[in-house]
Amino acid sequence: MSSSRPRSEKFEKGLKTRRAVLGSDYVEKSLGQADDFSWPLQQLVTEFCWDEIWNRPGLDRRSRSLLNLGMLSALGRQHELKIHIQGALRNGLTKEELQEALLQVLIYCGAPAAIDAFRTAKEALRDMEAAD
To answer: Does domain 60-132 have CATH number 1.10.10.10?
Structure first.
């Protein structure tokens, strides 16, 4: 990483959490694809999302993951949902709990959101099984 891409202490702490939840391969790919234009986004996401929020003591990582599944499903952000499903499983969520969370999406967000979320979950689970 060039010197034009500074790494603060907050960045390093956030990076550690980001890797633990999303997986090192995914994070390194995201950082590696960042250019001078998109680097500030990576920096802010890592410092504020992954350090300021994910490292707060009020909720554990498993709980934060569960919340993200509902929010990302509701927003229809399938790419982010897929990686966060994998992160939720890394954070201790079971497949059964994942299923229950997505069934709740059906009731509160509607069938299209739940159908997309289940489709994304199947892809995420398949990818994780293939990686093992």
So the answer is: no
